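Figure S7 source data.
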Amino acid sequence: MAIVVFGAGGGLGLSLTKALKQKFNDSTLIAVSRHPITERVAGVHYTTIEDYTSTHLHAWVNEFSERGEVLEGVVSTIGMLHDDDTFPEKQLDDLNEANLSKLFSVNAVMPLMILKACKSLLDKKQSRFFVQLSAKVGSIEDNYLGGWYSYRGSKAALNMLLKTAAIELKRSHKSFVVAAIHPGTTDTQLSKPFQKRVPDDKLYSPALSAERIVKVIEGLKPEDSGGLFHWNGERLPY
Ligand SMILES: NC(=O)c1ccc[n+]([C@@H]2O[C@H](COP(=O)([O-])OP(=O)(O)OC[C@H]3O[C@@H](n4cnc5c(N)ncnc54)[C@H](OP(=O)(O)O)[C@@H]3O)[C@@H](O)[C@H]2O)c1
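Tokens for the predicted NAP complex:
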């Protein structure tokens, strides 16, 4: 049985790889990133992928199939909030097409392309979960502050896409769970520019967040499929 982490090179990706290896020691752990990872965990299989588009994901699926392993679960950390050209918008005047499209592509399109590619690897009885890290700010009901249009909108789209896939997969893969998990504000490059406003006790280390996420994954049941979960295991409103 194998568990695959996509986006294994990020702050949460590195810690989740470590935490998953500890918890699911009997499973083969495969860490996939666009860049070679130097901070390695003993016993984990590391592999690079050019990007998370269909062509390269297909090539990865073929490579995985040749291993002859059953896919137990997938954890994807793929996501972005800012880069050199993109920063969360405070107001409508800050919006532009390029940034909106970029965030929708990384936060919603790529995770769904990963799920689509992995579908052919799912075993109806033995495959257990597809987990994508999402964000509470993508909850429409929970949006009281506004701002961060592209990030909020793309995570809300992600949540809807995951829920839709959960409904479809429930018909064919009865014990499989598709879930989105909110990790909480974690000290990674993604949250760096926004940490000043976060109280110390609300900024979590990647190791702590990874431990909490793994606990949520361990507790997932088929009836949870389609849900958005807080790092403490509670269900969040969409
Ligand atoms: N940190 C927080 O406070 C926080 C809070 C709420 C939600 N989250 C969510 O948690 C997840 C992990 O975040 P993190 O804090 O670990 O951030 P991170 O260190 O920036 O890692 C993000 C991952 O996403 C992939 N990625 C980023 N930009 C990409 C692009 N342009 N194209 C393709 N892949 C890209 C990278 O994969 P590679 O390994 O291939 O480079 C990277 O590993 C994200 O989905 C984020 O939205 C984080």
